[in-house]
Every structure is written in C-alpha cells, then in structure tokens.
Specification:
CATH superfamily of the largest domain in chain A: Cytochrome c-like domain
Oligomer: heterodimer
Radius of gyration of chain A: 21 Å
Number of helices of chain B: 2
Shape of chain B: globular
Structural class of chain B: mainly beta
Shape of chain A: globular
Largest sheet of chain A: 5 strands, antiparallel
Strand content of chain A: 5-15%
Strand order of the largest sheet of chain B: 1-32-33-34-35
Helix content of chain B: under 10%
Radius of gyration of chain B: 22 Å
Number of strands of chain B: 38
Low-confidence stretches of chain B: 8-16
Structural class of chain A: alpha+beta
CATH class of the largest domain in chain A: Mainly Alpha
Number of strands of chain A: 7
Number of helices of chain A: 9
CATH class of chain B: Mainly Beta
Chain lengths: 255, 525
C-alpha cells in the first residue's frame, strides 16, 4: 500500500467533514456541462467515459449501491469510500452537485444486454476455467485474485469480458505481482500482500503466505501491469466467454 | 519537623520549576528535553552518548504508554525532573512518571467540531516556570499547573468557527509563550502571537497576511489578504543573543487558485525573524512567492553558528517543503545558498538571490497539471536534525507527485478554500528517504531509502546514531556518518512524530510516538 492510500483517509476525512451539501438547487444545462467536464478529467479514467466501469464501478446504472440517492453520491464524491480505491475529492459543494447531476444522467443509459447463459458460465467457472483456484465467490476459493462475490455490481459486461481476454489490461490495486529471488537461489512469484522498508509479504501462486526480510533476497522485481491470470481466449470459445461473463454479471453479493 | 518538611517541599517545588534560564542552557543539561526541538536552536541533536553506534543494537522497550484517541499521535515529549509531558490528540496533556510510564495527571479538553485539514492532532507542549502550555485545536492557549495539570488560564487565540486551529507546540521565550496558527486550507488570515506566560494576556501579534497600511499588503490583489492564509503551525526557533524568533509560514489562500490573490503574497511561504519582545519584523525571506502548489514553509528553522565559505557566520538552515535546502544569514536574512534535495518540478531553478523561476506547466489547470512534490511536500512539519559532529543535516524526504485540476474557490467561512482537486499519478508508487546533507553545501552525503514517503522527525545524538521512523511502523537507528542500519523495531503503528532522548537514573532513553503508543527505549542490562 502506498503512502497516498494511508495518508489520504486522514486528509480527506478532515476536508470532507466540512463538505456537506447545501440544499439542492435546480441545475441548468451549464451545470450539467460543468459536471461532464469534471467527470471527463477526474472520473472517466476509472469509471469509463460513459460510466461503463473500469477500475471503478459501473455508473451507467439506474441504482448505485453506494449512492442510492443524490445525498449519498455527494458524500461518496466528497469523502470517498473507505477501504476501496475510491478517494475523496476537494470539489466545492456546487461542483459536487454538478457532478452528481451529470453522473445521474449516465444511469439513464439503457443497460447492456446479457447474451450468455449464466448457469453454463457457473459450470465453466468451476470446471474448465479453474477460476476458483485464484478467485473467491461467497467465501470459497483462492485469494491470489480479487473476490468476485459482488463483481457484477461494480463492473460492466465489457469490462468483465476484457478482463477474461486481457487480464493485464487492468490489474486491480492490491494485487501487484512480484518476483523474488532468495539469496539461496529460489525463485518465487506471487502477489504482494504488504511491504515495508525492511520486509515484504506475498501470497505465492499456490496460495501460500510467504514472508521475507529484504536482506534475505537477491532480487525483488515488482511487475506492475503483470498478472498471474492467463488470457482465456484459448481456453474458452466465444460463446463460453459470453456464458462466463453472464455468470460474473449475475454476482451481486447477498441480495 | 514541620519546618523541615516545608523546606523540603519548597526545594521540591523550586526543582520542579523551569525558568527561562534553564531552557536557555539546555545544551548543558542534555538529560532533559525542555523545548519542542530540544533547544532554542532547534537542532534536535543531543550530546548524550551512552547509546552508541556500537551498542544501539541492544535497544529494548522500557515502557509503553497507550493514548485513548485514535487520530495521528504526533507528540514530541518534554522531559525533566523525573516526569515526561506529552500532548495527546486532539488537545490533551498527560504527565508520565519516567520510571514506570504511569500517568500522574491528565488534562482532557472537549473539542467542538473544528474545521481542520489534516486530523485532530497536536505536536507537543511548552514549559516555563511552573506551567505547561498547550495550544488547542479550537484555537485556545491554555496554561496548566505543572504539578497538577489544573488550568491556570485559558485564552482564545482566534475563532475556531472560521477554521483557526492550533496543532503546534508553543515556544516559551523569556516571560512569553509564542504560538502559531493553522487553517490556511480554509482561508484564515495568518499570524504569530505571543502571550504573557503569567497572565495569558496577549503581548503582541504579527499578521503574516498584512492589512492596509502595513508593509507587504501591496503584495496582495484587492482584499485577498483577508483570506490570505500564511499560517504558522510549526514551532520555530529562537536566538537569545539577537532576541529574534524565527518562524516558518505556510501557503497563501486559496491554496491553488493563484489568480484570486495576485502578487507575491507576503508573508506566505516565508521564514520571518521577529523581535521576541515586540513582535516587530526584523527580516523575512520568501522561499516561494505566489505559491500555487501548497508548498508551505512550515518547517523547522535550525540555527547553527558555523564557518560558511571560510567565514564564521550565524546561519539558519531550512529544509523546505518546496524541495530546496536553504542557508540564510540569520542576522540579516541574506540568502547564501540553496540546493535541491528532492524531486521538484514547480520551479525551473532559483536566481542569484534565491527567488524561484516558476514553471507554469506545474500550476494547477482545468486539464490537470502534474507536479513534484505534491501538496504534502518534499519535507513537511516533521523535524530535521543537525549534528555538529558530522556536520550533516538529516532530512526525511518525500518523493511523490500528484495531478492538480483547477476548480472554483469561493470563500465561505469555515469551509475549505482550495481551488483544485487532486489525483495521484497513475502507476507511480511514491517512496521516501532519509537523506544526510552536508550542512554547509547541501550536497547529499548518504541516503537511506524508505518504502513510503515518511512523516517522522529525526533525532541525532553524540553517540553517532540517528533515530527516525517510517509509515509502516518501523522505528530504526542509522549510523550518523554513513547511513547504514544499526537497529530497528516494528512498532505496529505508523510514525508521525519526532524522537527525543533523555537520561533518567543514569540511563539514556529514546522516546517516540508510533500508532497510538508512546514507546520508550533503553539499552538492555
């Protein structure tokens, strides 16, 4: 975890305490345009140009889990969401309201159509795909990759499909791949769990926890943008990919 | 018998008192830590040498004190006469028995909802005669009885509802208590104050954003000085011979929307030298005129008498948040030297008088502008240390940039007044370092890399050991001359504080706040 993530909650909480919305006012087309400008520069890189999702949640939905109403969305923008990649922001109240209004327009986009067979996707996930070796759903599975229990609520169909075809296109924060060479010559690849000035802790590709003092290592290679996950283009057919995407899209956590 | 007891009691009382002369001579009593930075010169260097580079690996915890609050624990303790005095977040004070770490008394203050940028924190107390002083988050200055912690007086320094707050340790000088103010992220008008230590009556105020008719007001467009910031939230230094107080000032407000306050914006981002008796300005040096990157000069001025370019001079050393290390003549404020010590892109360089040549590409823009350092700075409030044995200036350094998008900045009292939104730089993992600079040239002598940009101060000692900490909770000792690791302990909590050292019952101790704990170490026996 970088310093930004550690410091940010303190800084942002401090600022955010005072970022309370004034009563809603009618917003003009100019306000929406201003909201769109802010969205493009500061939100689209994670949430997608049309709110289709990416590193950040899909916003092109009528109902957002963390922002069911405008007040909640105001708070999310101002304060961020703790323990996620969503930071708080230093917008003025008016700017935040403009942004809220624009984000709401994204929700009016017709939802993307699921074409695959989710039930078959579930079988492929558990069987041929071998996905559970690295991913968790409902508390079961591996932990080398992200927990997918609610992935359908936060990622678009396009994003899910892309992550099966090209997993390295968007490696989520907190899953940095590292390659270590110990002083006695062992090579270990894994995902970084934690690191400080003197030590590093990883989960290796068999899912086991490993801890090293840096003095025990001959090499420590951090590989941002790399992922232990293979591309599934050669494992699944096109229609199987659709089925797995449909299954992942159906994962919305406890309903 | 009664007389004997009375006399003993009187002696004990007299011993417990800390007159100005005692703080003045802190170098001759290194067993104590009597003021925020250890001495008026603010070197955070101790002549204690029981703990050395050869034996520091035997350092073990002697006791640990846990605070109740969960905000960042930034205290730098004071120690004398068998007792340690610490502040706890948000604005509490506790006296601890040095032998056991057990509390003797606590002052607990209820804090209203104060607008603050960076946590409900406090960095320490001051002592003078028989009183302990704390500046509070709700912008009061409080004098406590040294023996009981009971309130002697409590005065309002400024209105907290307009986001004035105090987080810095006051500085006690002669018969006065000097205290700085924070709140530039909310458009306060900055100042430095002095109060009569006995009565709490304000002795003087120096406005760091001067009003009409005052020198410097012409460096602010329109009425922008009224919300001009220039806060004073880090404890300064004092030269008793010159009777000058040296204090760093912070960013102008709004932080990033510079068009709203055209001009140099004096005395923001300055080192100011004030007469301790009157608060009159002797000189100022502005490191970052018309700052649009929030690179406060709220750092520790370190006063050193040394030979500079062949001449014995009275100097002030300053590791600035803007990424440059400065040496000024502390009698006149004359610029003598600056050397870049961290990545910076806000300035293309400095001219012959130390004035920066700004890089317009680093100013916040609607499209987003990348700049190093970010608004947390290359340095910040955390203390550097100057070691006269090695001639090195030890500075913790943050290597981190950010992208700033210009936004609106309407002034609403008590609300944030910034003018930009911030994003981290995609794909970059910020890092940090302990850097040892040749104090007379600014050249880097050694570096010890840190996983993350740090928030810990540095202590150097005559034992040849430098102590500091990191954000992942490691407290560690480096060889002062070469920078190699000598000892470390994982404390379990991020370190947002400066270490101190003292002697008690013949043993040297080192103290540091980490996480929610104050840890005290000594050599095992």
């Amino acid at each position: 975890m970088g310093i930004f993530q550690q410091i940010a909650p303190f800084l942002l909480c401090g600022y955010a305490l005072w970022a309370q919305p004034a009563p809603q006012q009618l917003l003009t087309p100019e306000d929406l345009a201003a909201g769109e400008r802010m969205y493009r520069t500061q939100c689209a890189s994670c949430h997608g140009a049309r709110g289709e999702g990416g590193r950040g949640a899909t916003l092109a939905r009528p109902r957002l889990v963390h922002a069911p109403d405008d007040q909640a969305m105001f708070n999310v923008i101002a304060n961020g969401i703790p323990d996620t990649e969503m930071p708080g922001h230093w917008f003025t109240d008016r700017e935040t309201r403009q942004l809220v209004a624009f984000v709401r327009t994204l929700g009016r986009v017709p939802p993307q159509k699921v074409t695959g067979d989710a039930a078959n996707g579930q079988k492929l996930y558990a069987g041929k795909g071998g996905c559970a070796a690295c991913h968790t759903i409902g508390g079961r599975g591996g932990a080398i990759g992200p927990d997918l229990s609610e992935i359908g609520a936060s990622r678009s169909l396009a994003y899910l499909r892309e992550s099966l075809i090209a997993p390295e296109a968007a490696v989520p924060d907190g899953f940095l791949q590292v390659q270590l060479v110990t002083r006695n010559g062992s090579r270990i690849t894994g995902v970084r769990l934690n690191e400080d000035t003197f030590s590093i802790q990883i989960r290796d590709l068999s899912g086991d926890f490993r801890s090293f003092f840096k003095t025990e290592l001959a090499e420590l290679n951090k590989q941002p943008g790399k992922s232990p996950m293979p591309s599934y283009t050669k494992i699944f057919t096109e229609s199987e990919l659709d089925d797995v995407v449909a299954y992942l899209d159906s994962l919305r956590g406890p309903q | 018998m009664k007389q004997v007891i009375a006399i003993l009691a009187f002696v004990a009382l007299a011993n417990a008192q800390v007159p100005y002369e005692r703080i003045l001579k802190s170098a001759s009593q290194p067993e104590n830590w009597l003021t925020y930075s250890g001495s008026y010169q603010a070197t955070r260097y101790s002549t204690l040498d029981q703990i050395t580079r050869a034996n520091v690996h035997r350092l073990k915890p002697a006791w640990i004190y846990q605070v109740r609050a969960h905000d960042k624990f930034e205290t730098s303790p004071l120690v004398f006469d068998g007792i340690m005095y610490i502040s706890e977040p948000p604005s509490d004070v506790t006296a601890l028995d040095l032998r056991t770490g057990r509390p003797i008394w606590s002052y607990r203050r209820s804090i209203p909802a104060v607008p603050v940028c960076c946590g409900q924190v406090n960095r320490g107390v001051a002592v003078l005669d028989d009183q302990v002083f704390i500046g509070t988050l709700d912008a009061h200055l409080v004098a406590l009885d040294l023996k009981t912690g009971r309130v002697r007086w409590d005065v309002e320094v400024a209105d907290y509802r307009t986001a004035n707050s105090i987080t810095a340790a006051p500085l006690a000088v002669k018969d006065k208590v000097i205290v700085g103010i924070g709140g530039a992220e909310f458009g306060i008008r900055g100042f430095l104050d002095a109060y009569d230590a006995k009565t709490g009556k304000r002795a003087w105020r120096f406005w760091t954003a001067p009003g009409p008719g005052e020198p410097g007001n012409e460096t602010w467009s329109g009425d922008s000085w009224k919300t001009g910031g220039a806060p004073t939230w880090v404890t300064g230094a004092y030269d008793p011979h010159e009777n000058l107080v040296y204090w760093g000032t912070g960013n102008p407000g709004p932080d990033y929307a510079g068009d709203q306050r055209q001009g140099d914006n004096l005395y923001s981002d300055c080192l100011i030298a004030l007469d301790a008796g009157t608060g009159k300005l002797k000189w100022h040096f502005q490191f970052t005129p018309h700052d649009v990157n929030d690179i406060d000069a709220n750092e520790i001025p370190v006063l050193v008498d040394a030979t500079f370019r062949g001449q014995p001079r009275k100097l002030v050393l300053f590791g600035n948040r803007n990424g440059f290390y400065y040496i000024l003549d502390r009698l006149t404020g004359e610029y003598l030297l600056a050397k870049q010590f961290a990545t910076q892109t806000w300035a293309k360089g400095l001219d012959a008088r130390g004035r920066p040549i700004p890089n317009p590409a680093s100013a916040p823009s609607p499209e987003g502008s990348k700049v190093y350092p970010d608004d947390d700075g290359a340095a910040n409030w955390f203390s550097p240390s100057y070691d006269p044995q090695t001639g090195l200036f030890y500075q913790n350094v943050r290597e981190k940039g950010a992208i700033y998008y210009l936004t609106e900045a309407p002034y609403i009292p008590g609300r944030q007044f910034l003018g930009a939104s911030r994003r981290s730089i995609p794909g970059e993992e910020p890092w940090g370092a302990v850097r040892a600079l040749n104090a007379m040239t600014g050249e880097r002598q050694w570096e010890f890399r840190l996983q993350s940009p740090p928030w810990s101060g540095i202590l150097s000692t005559a034992g040849g050991v430098v102590f500091t900490g990191d954000m992942e909770g490691n407290f560690f000792a480096l060889d002062a001359a070469r920078g190699n690791l000598l000892w470390r302990l994982q404390t379990g909590g991020a370190i947002y504080a400066g270490p101190i050292t003292y002697m008690s019952e013949g043993r040297q101790y080192v103290a540091i706040a980490a996480g929610s704990a104050l840890l005290v170490f000594s050599l095992d026996q």
